[in-house]
Amino acid sequence: MLMRMFDTSDYDRALRRRRLLSFGLLAVGITGLVCYILLIHDSGVLSDYARGFYLGAASGITLGAVILLTRMQYLLTHPEARKRAKIREQDEREKTIINQSFQFAGMFTFFASAASMFVLVAVSREAAIAVFCVIVVYAVTWPLASLYLSKKL
Question: What does pTM read for this prediction?
Answer without folding.
Answer: 0.67
